[in-house]
Amino acid sequence: MTLTPVEPTIKSRPVYAPLEPRPGHLHLIIADGEGADAVTDMLAKTSDAGQLLASAHLMYCPGPNGTDLTERLRALGALQFFRAPTIPALLPRLKRVLVDAHMGSQFYLAGTEGLCGQAETAIMQTGFPASAIQKEHRGSTVRRVQCVHCKGITENVATDPFQCSHCGLSLFVRDHYSRRLAAFQGVNIDAEDPGDVPPSVVRFK
Amino acid sequence: MSVAKLQVRVEEVVPVNELITRFRFVSRNGAPLPAFSGGAHTVVEMEDHGTRRMNPYSLMSDPSDTRGYEISVRRDDQGRGGSLFMHRHVRPGMEMVISNPVNLFGLDTRAKKHLMIVGGIGITPFLSQTAQLARQGGQWEMHYAARNRALGAYMDRLTGAYGDRVHCYFDEEGDKIDLARLLATQPIGTHLYVCGPKGMIAWVLKTAAAMGWPPQALHSEEFIAPPTGAPFEVQLAASGKTITVGPAQSLLEAIEAAGVDAPYLCRGGACGQCETNVLRHEGEILHADHWLTDEEKASNCKIMPCVSRFAGKTLVLDR
């Protein structure tokens, strides 16, 4: 399992790169699902993984496809390890850690785009430059999508078009992405011809 | 020719200390000058007895003051003569031409906190930045080193206005900024700004990078004065001219003196605007800028004519 390939489309569509160890006094590693593999691959690149882990805070939750590599990450022996059942349960921990964090901290995000994006948004809100946050997409490609009409967010969208879980409109999933919301944009597909909705296809797995 | 020019009159010339003099420019027709943002600079044109000099200086006045712009100039007795001209010949009432403000050293207002590290005359962009922050709000802290108390320009003004946000250090009293401690204790989301002598900028940037500060949070500004050197000949392929660059002249100045239109903004090797393709060369390009990457410099396909020179037989530029 390696980095999930992303077709370059429009400029706003996030791109990802393999995690690289960088110098720092604190290593904040946030992962879900298969992102655990990206973490161990990153650690394999450093000459002294023990030293990095001795100043690492690792937060992990299972992926939307059920992949749960908790025990593998727990066994790494990071300074702090936290396992959350879901992304929404993980984020408050990250936000609390950011309150006391100092410059010289490194951020490593790995796993689904929903996890990487929401962690990135929380880190960005501190004023830390978004482009300095490392992100490696692994595992499930399901999307977190905002309905541009009702502003409701639907998690783990697999098909295109899909029905907004808030207002019920049929939405076309764009590559247009908002870093502020950590969501792709979904636009009503039958606005001009109500009822003329093409069949849904599974685009994200 | 790159940026619109402003027709100004010198309103005030104020000695600040034995090396630094402050100049205030106002528009000749009384109209407000364009607004700018903290950290911006202007290029001042000087007609120095037959030689046209164009030097960049940071704007140090409050960005909300559009009645005039202020700069502070440190006299460089070994320089090419721009600062000496400003000190010796510029008097109140004189009419001068300056460029519209350009900002290569702006505040990143997304930052949670701005950490400013200053050496000597490098204080000037921070004076406009702190004035901007005082108005807009924002957390900041300054560490300002000068050779001695007499040469610490504007220290009294800053400590008077901002109190313990400003920390002063004097080399002759043995003070040294405890950089490792300072950089280790900044809240996440802090951006660092450094302006001062070359050695200080390099020390700060290198230390911060080694401690894990990302380059995107590190901001620095250093205008390089064009170095002097042996004269050299250059062929300008696009305009079909061959020119000679004098010992105290920059390549950009020689191109302009030949009547060839060349782009520029900062004239100090920082902005990248004057980047020019090298078509052919037999000899060594003496790169002096901060713009080209080490790889680009090594490839010798590009030159920054504002500060870089050439030694050798032939240099052909796409200009």
UniProtKB/TrEMBL annotation, chain A:
State the superkingdom: Bacteria
Q: Which residues form the Dimethylamine monooxygenase subunit DmmA-like N-terminal domain?
A: 9-133
Q: Does the keyword Oxidoreductase apply?
A: yes
One Pfam family linked to the record: DmmA-like_C
UniProt keywords (A-Z) are:
2Fe-2S, Flavoprotein, Iron, Iron-sulfur, Metal-binding, Monooxygenase, Oxidoreductase
Can you give the residue ranges of the Dimethylamine monooxygenase subunit DmmA-like C-terminal domain? Answer: 144-187
> What Gene Ontology terms describe what this protein does at the molecular function level?
monooxygenase activity
- The name this protein carries in UniProt is Dimethylamine monooxygenase subunit DmmA family protein
Species:
Pseudogemmobacter lacusdianii
The major lineage groups are: Bacteria, Pseudomonadati, Pseudomonadota, Alphaproteobacteria, Rhodobacterales
Automatic annotation (TrEMBL), chain B:
Keywords associated with the record: 2Fe-2S, Flavoprotein, FMN, Iron, Iron-sulfur, Metal-binding, Oxidoreductase
Query: PROSITE patterns, per this entry?
Result: 2FE2S_FER_1, 2FE2S_FER_2, FAD_FR
Occurrences of domain 2Fe-2S ferredoxin-type (ranges): 232-319
Task: Quote one Gene Ontology molecular function term.
Answer: oxidoreductase activity
User: What residues does the FAD-binding FR-type domain cover?
Assistant: 3-108
- The lineage's top-level taxon is Bacteria
Concerning InterPro entries, the annotation shows:
2Fe-2S_ferredoxin-like_sf, 2Fe-2S_ferredoxin-type, 2Fe2S_fd_BS, Beta-grasp_dom_sf, DmmA-like_N, FAD-bd_FR_type, FNR_nucleotide-bd, MRET
What this protein needs as a cofactor is: FMN
User: What Enzyme Commission number does this protein have?
Assistant: 1.-.-.-
The protein's name? PDR/VanB family oxidoreductase
What is the organism of origin for this protein?
Answer: Pseudogemmobacter lacusdianii
